[in-house]
Structures are given as C-alpha cells and as structure tokens.
Amino acid sequence: MTNKEAFDRYVVLILGEIYDNFPQPVELNLQKFDDTLDRNTIENFASTIDFLTREGFIRHGDGVDEGFYFSDATLTMKGLTVLNRVPEFFEEKTSWGAKFWQSLKAGQRKQARKRSKLWLLNLSQGSSGVVGINPAIRTSSMP
Predict the structure, then answer these.
(1) Cα atoms found within 13 Å of the Cα of residue 33, Cβ hemisphere only
(2) Torsion angle (degrees, nearest 10) of CA 133, 118, 13, 127
(3) May I ask the CATH architecture of the domain 3-78?
C-alpha cells in the first residue's frame, strides 16, 4: 500500500470512528485500525491525524503515545459541518460521515477509499463560506 493509499484509508477510518461516537471523544489507537505496526504504518497513521488536526477537522487531547495512540479525539465544528454535508451528485441524500461509516461497516474498503478521495477533492474546490468547501455541497440532516 502506498503512503497516499494509507492516508486515504486512515482518513475514512479515523473520521468514521469519531463521527460515529460524536459528541463523545474517542481514543484513536493504531492497533484498532491496523495489524501491521511497522515504522511506515505508524508514521502514516500519526501523519494522517496530524493533517486532520492541522486542517481543523479534528482535535485530540495531550495523551499521545509515539504515533500509536491519541486521546480524546473529537470533531471540530468544521469537521462536523463538512461530514454533515451531502453532495448533490449522490441520488440518496446521505452525509459524508454516514457514507464513510456505512462503507466501513459493510467491509467495503475500496468504496470507502473512493469516498475519501472524492471528499478530499470536494474540500479542495471552490468555497461556500467555509474554507475549502465546494458550493455544490449542501447541508442535510443525518438519516
């Protein structure tokens, strides 16, 4: 698996886990998401969490264990807003967060990776008052 593929996978796993437990904070432990604990896997996991934190989608507590573990992780308002948005091109109106979680629960990792890439692409295009949000994405309530 390339670093980019690992990033896409961890974005879906991390956001899915946090979204499913929101508003309660969760502990993000690499061992919950991956059986391989080599240096590259640890760095990809930690770097994905760092990216999501720096970009303002999640926050976590001070409890960090060398990239394996991050305490008290939760969505920020920006993360919650983005995950509750529904892209208009989906026929069924389900939020990004719900789509991530549905893919993971169904064991559809390839579909989850595709949704992650599509979500990141939409974040990088256009603006609708929220930095990086495509105006073609509208807000909807959770199913």
Answers:
(1) 30
(2) -10
(3) Orthogonal Bundle (1.10)
Question: What pLDDT score does 112 carry?
Answer: 61
Question: Bridge partners of 65?
Answer: 69
pLDDT in tens, 37-71: 899 999 999 999 999 999 999 999 886 667 677 88
Q: Give the sign of the dihedral formed by CA 48, CA 54, CA 59, CA 60.
A: positive
Between CA 75 and CA 68 the distance in angstroms is 19
- Upper half-sphere CA count for residue 134 (Cβ side, 13 Å): 16
Tell me the β-bridge partners of 75. Answer: 58
Reduce the secondary structure of 49-68 to three states and give it as a string.
Answer: HHHHHHCCCEECCCCEECCC
Going from N- to C-terminal start, the domains of the chain cover: 3-78, 85-139
> Model pTM?
0.62
Of the pLDDT bands very low, low, confident and very high (cuts 50, 70, 90), residue 127 is very low
CB 123 within 8 Å of CB 70:
no
Residues 6+ apart with CB under 8 A from 81: 130, 133, 139
Paired tokens of 86? 């529904």
